[in-house]
Design goal:
With 97 residues, this protein is of the alpha+beta class. The chain contains four helices and four strands. Helix 1 crosses helix 4.
Length: 97
C-alpha cells in the first residue's frame, strides 16, 4: 500500500506531520499491519500537481490514498493516523488476524 503525504516546501506543519508518521509507524498495530501488506509513504509537493493544489492547498499536510481517494487532513496525531491506516488496510481486503 502506498500513501502520499501531500505537502510543500517550507511547511512547518508538514514537518510535524512527518514526525507524526514516524510515531505511527512505530506503533505495534502498524508493525503488525506491515507484516501482511507493505506500507510506503511518499512525500509529494502539491505545487507539482494542479489538481492537488486546488483540492488541498489550504489543508496541507494531508495523507492521501490515491487508490481509494481517502484523506486524513491536518491536524492528525499518531493515534488518528494508525486508525486511518488500519481502515485503509481493511478496505484493501486484508485482515490483521
Amino acid at each position: 500500500m502506498a500513501i502520499l503525504l501531500l505537502s510543500t516546501q517550507a511547511c512547518h506543519l508538514c514537518e510535524l506531520a512527518e514526525q507524526v508518521l514516524q510515531q505511527a509507524f512505530s506503533q505495534p498495530e502498524i508493525q503488525q499491519l506491515m507484516l501482511f501488506q507493505p506500507l510506503d509513504v511518499y512525500v509529494q509537493d502539491i505545487i507539482d500537481h494542479p489538481k492537488w493544489l486546488e483540492l488541498f492547498g489550504e489543508k496541507i499536510p494531508v495523507l492521501f490514498d490515491e487508490k481509494t481517494e481517502s484523506t486524513l487532513c491536518w491536524p492528525f496525531d499518531a493515534s488518528a493516523t494508525v486508525e486511518w491506516l488500519q481502515k485503509l488496510h481493511l478496505q484493501a481486503g486484508s485482515s490483521l488476524s
